[in-house]
Write a structure and sequence with these properties.
This protein is an alpha+beta fold and 308 residues long. The chain has two domains: 12-125, Aminotransferase class 4, branched-chain amino acid transferase, N-terminal domain (D-amino Acid Aminotransferase, Chain A, domain 1, 2-Layer Sandwich); 132-303, Alpha-Beta Barrel (D-amino Acid Aminotransferase, Chain A, domain 2). The chain is 26% helix and 28% strand. The chain has eight helices and 16 strands. It is globular.
Protein backbone atom coordinates (compact mmCIF):
# COMPACT_ATOMS: atom_id res chain seq x y z
CA UNK A 1 0.00 0.00 0.00
CA UNK A 2 1.16 3.55 -0.75
CA UNK A 3 2.78 4.99 2.39
CA UNK A 4 2.51 8.62 1.24
CA UNK A 5 0.28 10.97 3.28
CA UNK A 6 -3.28 10.95 2.00
CA UNK A 7 -3.11 14.62 1.00
CA UNK A 8 0.00 14.17 -1.17
CA UNK A 9 -0.70 11.51 -3.77
CA UNK A 10 -1.08 11.20 -7.49
CA UNK A 11 -4.52 10.51 -8.91
CA UNK A 12 -7.96 12.04 -9.26
CA UNK A 13 -10.85 12.51 -6.84
CA UNK A 14 -14.52 13.04 -7.72
CA UNK A 15 -15.55 16.27 -5.95
CA UNK A 16 -19.07 17.71 -6.26
CA UNK A 17 -19.56 16.33 -9.75
CA UNK A 18 -16.10 17.11 -11.13
CA UNK A 19 -12.85 15.18 -11.19
CA UNK A 20 -10.01 17.15 -9.64
CA UNK A 21 -6.34 16.46 -9.05
CA UNK A 22 -5.84 14.53 -5.82
CA UNK A 23 -3.79 17.27 -4.16
CA UNK A 24 -6.38 19.92 -5.06
CA UNK A 25 -9.36 18.21 -3.38
CA UNK A 26 -9.60 20.55 -0.40
CA UNK A 27 -12.12 22.10 1.97
CA UNK A 28 -11.98 25.24 4.08
CA UNK A 29 -10.76 25.16 7.69
CA UNK A 30 -14.13 26.57 8.80
CA UNK A 31 -16.21 23.81 7.25
CA UNK A 32 -19.05 22.85 9.55
CA UNK A 33 -18.15 19.16 9.35
CA UNK A 34 -14.68 19.73 10.81
CA UNK A 35 -16.04 21.53 13.86
CA UNK A 36 -19.36 19.78 14.45
CA UNK A 37 -18.89 16.33 12.84
CA UNK A 38 -21.73 16.89 10.35
CA UNK A 39 -20.37 14.29 7.95
CA UNK A 40 -21.27 10.80 6.77
CA UNK A 41 -19.22 8.36 4.75
CA UNK A 42 -18.97 4.87 3.32
CA UNK A 43 -16.20 2.31 2.98
CA UNK A 44 -16.39 0.09 -0.09
CA UNK A 45 -14.12 -2.62 -1.49
CA UNK A 46 -13.38 -3.29 -5.12
CA UNK A 47 -12.35 -6.75 -6.29
CA UNK A 48 -11.32 -7.27 -9.90
CA UNK A 49 -12.44 -3.75 -10.76
CA UNK A 50 -15.97 -4.21 -9.38
CA UNK A 51 -17.27 -2.66 -6.16
CA UNK A 52 -18.92 -5.24 -3.92
CA UNK A 53 -22.49 -4.35 -2.88
CA UNK A 54 -22.15 -0.86 -4.36
CA UNK A 55 -25.84 0.01 -4.33
CA UNK A 56 -26.24 -1.19 -0.73
CA UNK A 57 -23.42 1.14 0.31
CA UNK A 58 -24.88 4.05 -1.65
CA UNK A 59 -28.29 3.51 -0.08
CA UNK A 60 -26.72 3.52 3.36
CA UNK A 61 -24.85 6.74 2.55
CA UNK A 62 -28.12 8.43 1.62
CA UNK A 63 -29.86 7.05 4.69
CA UNK A 64 -27.04 8.29 6.93
CA UNK A 65 -27.33 11.76 5.42
CA UNK A 66 -31.08 11.76 5.98
CA UNK A 67 -30.59 10.78 9.62
CA UNK A 68 -28.18 13.72 10.03
CA UNK A 69 -30.75 16.04 8.47
CA UNK A 70 -29.28 16.82 5.06
CA UNK A 71 -29.80 15.74 1.47
CA UNK A 72 -27.08 14.59 -0.90
CA UNK A 73 -27.39 16.75 -4.06
CA UNK A 74 -26.95 13.86 -6.50
CA UNK A 75 -29.00 10.77 -7.30
CA UNK A 76 -28.00 7.31 -6.13
CA UNK A 77 -27.26 6.35 -9.72
CA UNK A 78 -24.97 9.35 -10.12
CA UNK A 79 -23.05 8.34 -7.01
CA UNK A 80 -22.82 4.71 -8.18
CA UNK A 81 -21.49 5.90 -11.53
CA UNK A 82 -19.02 8.24 -9.87
CA UNK A 83 -17.67 5.46 -7.64
CA UNK A 84 -17.09 3.27 -10.68
CA UNK A 85 -15.53 6.14 -12.60
CA UNK A 86 -13.09 6.88 -9.78
CA UNK A 87 -11.87 3.30 -9.90
CA UNK A 88 -11.34 3.46 -13.64
CA UNK A 89 -9.60 6.82 -13.85
CA UNK A 90 -7.21 5.82 -11.08
CA UNK A 91 -6.61 2.41 -12.67
CA UNK A 92 -7.52 0.53 -9.47
CA UNK A 93 -8.47 -3.13 -9.78
CA UNK A 94 -8.43 -4.19 -6.10
CA UNK A 95 -8.88 -1.30 -3.73
CA UNK A 96 -10.90 0.77 -1.31
CA UNK A 97 -13.50 3.42 -2.21
CA UNK A 98 -14.43 6.24 0.17
CA UNK A 99 -17.51 8.39 -0.56
CA UNK A 100 -17.95 11.17 2.01
CA UNK A 101 -20.60 13.89 2.32
CA UNK A 102 -20.38 16.89 4.61
CA UNK A 103 -21.74 20.31 5.48
CA UNK A 104 -19.61 23.16 4.19
CA UNK A 105 -18.45 26.56 5.46
CA UNK A 106 -21.46 28.79 4.74
CA UNK A 107 -22.44 28.85 8.45
CA UNK A 108 -20.25 28.48 11.54
CA UNK A 109 -22.14 27.49 14.65
CA UNK A 110 -24.38 24.70 15.80
CA UNK A 111 -27.07 25.75 13.31
CA UNK A 112 -26.22 24.72 9.77
CA UNK A 113 -29.40 25.03 7.71
CA UNK A 114 -27.78 27.14 4.98
CA UNK A 115 -24.60 25.15 4.53
CA UNK A 116 -23.83 23.62 1.15
CA UNK A 117 -23.74 19.83 1.10
CA UNK A 118 -20.50 18.62 -0.46
CA UNK A 119 -19.63 15.12 -1.57
CA UNK A 120 -16.37 13.58 -2.69
CA UNK A 121 -15.25 10.09 -3.69
CA UNK A 122 -11.68 8.83 -3.51
CA UNK A 123 -10.21 5.39 -4.15
CA UNK A 124 -6.86 3.81 -3.44
CA UNK A 125 -5.09 0.47 -3.38
CA UNK A 126 -5.93 -1.51 -0.23
CA UNK A 127 -4.32 -4.67 1.16
CA UNK A 128 -5.68 -6.69 4.09
CA UNK A 129 -6.81 -4.54 7.03
CA UNK A 130 -4.94 -6.82 9.42
CA UNK A 131 -1.59 -8.41 8.59
CA UNK A 132 -1.58 -11.91 7.04
CA UNK A 133 0.40 -13.14 10.05
CA UNK A 134 -2.25 -11.87 12.48
CA UNK A 135 -5.03 -13.43 10.43
CA UNK A 136 -3.26 -16.81 10.37
CA UNK A 137 -3.50 -17.22 14.14
CA UNK A 138 -6.34 -14.78 14.81
CA UNK A 139 -6.05 -11.15 15.86
CA UNK A 140 -6.00 -10.04 19.49
CA UNK A 141 -8.68 -7.76 20.98
CA UNK A 142 -8.80 -5.88 24.25
CA UNK A 143 -12.04 -4.64 25.77
CA UNK A 144 -12.13 -0.85 25.78
CA UNK A 145 -13.58 1.49 28.38
CA UNK A 146 -15.51 3.38 25.68
CA UNK A 147 -19.01 2.10 24.98
CA UNK A 148 -21.40 2.28 22.08
CA UNK A 149 -24.04 4.88 23.00
CA UNK A 150 -27.77 4.55 23.34
CA UNK A 151 -29.95 5.30 20.27
CA UNK A 152 -31.45 8.13 22.34
CA UNK A 153 -28.09 9.91 22.56
CA UNK A 154 -26.48 9.52 19.12
CA UNK A 155 -27.60 8.72 15.53
CA UNK A 156 -26.29 5.17 15.95
CA UNK A 157 -27.75 3.77 12.74
CA UNK A 158 -25.93 6.26 10.52
CA UNK A 159 -22.35 5.90 9.36
CA UNK A 160 -21.58 9.30 10.82
CA UNK A 161 -18.02 10.48 11.27
CA UNK A 162 -18.56 11.58 14.87
CA UNK A 163 -19.44 8.07 16.00
CA UNK A 164 -15.90 6.93 15.17
CA UNK A 165 -14.10 9.18 17.65
CA UNK A 166 -14.36 6.56 20.40
CA UNK A 167 -13.23 3.91 17.90
CA UNK A 168 -9.98 5.77 17.33
CA UNK A 169 -9.47 6.20 21.08
CA UNK A 170 -10.21 2.52 21.68
CA UNK A 171 -7.96 1.22 18.91
CA UNK A 172 -5.08 3.43 19.97
CA UNK A 173 -5.35 2.20 23.56
CA UNK A 174 -5.46 -1.44 22.43
CA UNK A 175 -2.47 -1.02 20.14
CA UNK A 176 -0.44 0.62 22.91
CA UNK A 177 -0.96 -2.57 24.92
CA UNK A 178 0.12 -4.83 22.06
CA UNK A 179 -3.34 -5.80 20.80
CA UNK A 180 -4.63 -5.48 17.23
CA UNK A 181 -8.02 -3.94 17.93
CA UNK A 182 -10.56 -3.29 20.66
CA UNK A 183 -13.80 -4.98 21.66
CA UNK A 184 -16.54 -2.46 22.37
CA UNK A 185 -19.43 -3.06 24.74
CA UNK A 186 -22.60 -1.01 24.52
CA UNK A 187 -24.14 1.36 27.05
CA UNK A 188 -25.77 -1.63 28.80
CA UNK A 189 -22.53 -3.60 29.10
CA UNK A 190 -23.43 -6.03 26.31
CA UNK A 191 -20.94 -7.09 23.62
CA UNK A 192 -21.38 -4.79 20.62
CA UNK A 193 -18.60 -4.87 18.02
CA UNK A 194 -14.95 -4.08 17.30
CA UNK A 195 -13.89 -0.55 16.34
CA UNK A 196 -14.86 -0.99 12.69
CA UNK A 197 -16.33 -4.47 12.36
CA UNK A 198 -19.16 -6.65 13.60
CA UNK A 199 -18.45 -9.75 15.68
CA UNK A 200 -19.57 -13.40 15.52
CA UNK A 201 -19.00 -16.15 18.09
CA UNK A 202 -19.19 -19.92 17.70
CA UNK A 203 -20.38 -21.44 20.96
CA UNK A 204 -20.24 -25.06 22.07
CA UNK A 205 -23.43 -25.74 20.11
CA UNK A 206 -21.62 -25.03 16.79
CA UNK A 207 -24.08 -22.25 16.07
CA UNK A 208 -23.12 -18.72 15.15
CA UNK A 209 -24.07 -16.10 17.72
CA UNK A 210 -23.91 -12.38 16.94
CA UNK A 211 -25.02 -9.31 18.93
CA UNK A 212 -28.27 -7.64 17.94
CA UNK A 213 -27.33 -4.38 16.16
CA UNK A 214 -29.75 -2.09 17.97
CA UNK A 215 -27.19 0.59 18.85
CA UNK A 216 -24.56 0.07 16.16
CA UNK A 217 -24.49 -0.60 12.41
CA UNK A 218 -25.93 -3.78 10.97
CA UNK A 219 -22.96 -4.08 8.65
CA UNK A 220 -23.31 -4.95 4.98
CA UNK A 221 -20.61 -7.61 5.40
CA UNK A 222 -22.40 -8.87 8.51
CA UNK A 223 -25.59 -9.35 6.49
CA UNK A 224 -23.66 -11.10 3.71
CA UNK A 225 -21.97 -13.53 6.12
CA UNK A 226 -25.27 -14.38 7.81
CA UNK A 227 -26.68 -15.38 4.41
CA UNK A 228 -23.56 -17.41 3.61
CA UNK A 229 -23.76 -19.22 6.94
CA UNK A 230 -27.43 -20.06 6.48
CA UNK A 231 -26.67 -21.35 2.96
CA UNK A 232 -24.29 -23.84 4.62
CA UNK A 233 -26.97 -24.89 7.07
CA UNK A 234 -25.33 -23.10 10.00
CA UNK A 235 -27.85 -21.64 12.42
CA UNK A 236 -27.28 -17.94 13.16
CA UNK A 237 -28.63 -16.56 16.43
CA UNK A 238 -28.99 -12.79 16.70
CA UNK A 239 -29.21 -12.00 20.41
CA UNK A 240 -27.89 -10.20 23.47
CA UNK A 241 -24.40 -11.50 24.31
CA UNK A 242 -22.73 -10.64 27.60
CA UNK A 243 -18.94 -10.49 28.14
CA UNK A 244 -19.03 -13.40 30.61
CA UNK A 245 -20.18 -15.64 27.75
CA UNK A 246 -16.78 -15.38 26.05
CA UNK A 247 -15.66 -18.33 28.17
CA UNK A 248 -18.14 -20.49 26.22
CA UNK A 249 -16.96 -19.39 22.78
CA UNK A 250 -14.69 -21.71 20.78
CA UNK A 251 -14.27 -19.50 17.70
CA UNK A 252 -14.66 -15.76 17.14
CA UNK A 253 -14.38 -13.69 13.98
CA UNK A 254 -14.99 -10.14 12.78
CA UNK A 255 -16.79 -9.00 9.63
CA UNK A 256 -16.50 -5.69 7.82
CA UNK A 257 -15.73 -4.13 4.46
CA UNK A 258 -12.13 -3.51 5.49
CA UNK A 259 -11.74 -6.51 7.82
CA UNK A 260 -13.65 -8.87 5.47
CA UNK A 261 -13.83 -12.06 7.61
CA UNK A 262 -11.01 -11.97 10.15
CA UNK A 263 -10.46 -14.63 12.85
CA UNK A 264 -9.99 -13.55 16.47
CA UNK A 265 -7.50 -15.57 18.51
CA UNK A 266 -7.79 -13.70 21.80
CA UNK A 267 -10.06 -11.28 23.66
CA UNK A 268 -8.53 -10.13 26.93
CA UNK A 269 -7.63 -13.42 28.69
CA UNK A 270 -9.87 -15.63 26.54
CA UNK A 271 -8.36 -17.58 23.64
CA UNK A 272 -10.06 -19.11 20.60
CA UNK A 273 -9.13 -21.38 17.72
CA UNK A 274 -9.33 -20.58 14.01
CA UNK A 275 -11.75 -23.44 13.49
CA UNK A 276 -13.73 -24.89 10.61
CA UNK A 277 -16.71 -22.53 10.75
CA UNK A 278 -14.43 -19.50 10.73
CA UNK A 279 -12.46 -20.91 7.79
CA UNK A 280 -15.63 -21.75 5.88
CA UNK A 281 -16.93 -18.21 6.32
CA UNK A 282 -13.60 -16.76 5.19
CA UNK A 283 -13.57 -19.02 2.17
CA UNK A 284 -17.21 -18.43 1.26
CA UNK A 285 -16.86 -14.67 1.60
CA UNK A 286 -13.73 -14.59 -0.52
CA UNK A 287 -15.52 -16.57 -3.21
CA UNK A 288 -18.53 -14.28 -2.98
CA UNK A 289 -16.48 -11.15 -3.58
CA UNK A 290 -14.20 -12.80 -6.13
CA UNK A 291 -11.05 -12.49 -4.04
CA UNK A 292 -8.09 -14.70 -4.90
CA UNK A 293 -7.38 -17.09 -2.04
CA UNK A 294 -3.70 -16.52 -1.42
CA UNK A 295 -3.13 -16.20 2.32
CA UNK A 296 -2.66 -19.92 3.04
CA UNK A 297 -5.43 -20.05 5.64
CA UNK A 298 -7.67 -22.52 3.83
CA UNK A 299 -6.90 -25.97 2.55
CA UNK A 300 -8.56 -27.83 -0.39
CA UNK A 301 -10.44 -30.03 2.07
CA UNK A 302 -11.86 -26.99 3.84
CA UNK A 303 -12.89 -25.37 0.57
CA UNK A 304 -15.10 -28.30 -0.30
CA UNK A 305 -16.37 -28.98 3.21
CA UNK A 306 -20.04 -28.69 4.08
CA UNK A 307 -21.94 -28.76 7.30
CA UNK A 308 -24.66 -31.18 8.19
Amino acid sequence: MDSAPFDDRDGLIWFNGETVAWREAKLHILSHALHYASSVFEGERAYGGKIFKLRAHTERLFNSAEILGFEIPFSMQEIDDACNDVLKINDIIDGYVRPVAWRGSEMMGVSAQQTKINIAIAAWQWPSYFSPEARMKGIRLKTTKWRRPSPETEPVHSKAAGLYMICTLSKHAAERDGFDDALMLDYRGQIAEATGANIFLVMGDDKLHTPTPDCFLNGITRQTVIKLAKARGIEVIDRVIMPNELINATQVFLTGTAAEVTPVGQIDNHTFSVGDITRWMMDDYDKKVGKILADGLRSPSVRSATTS
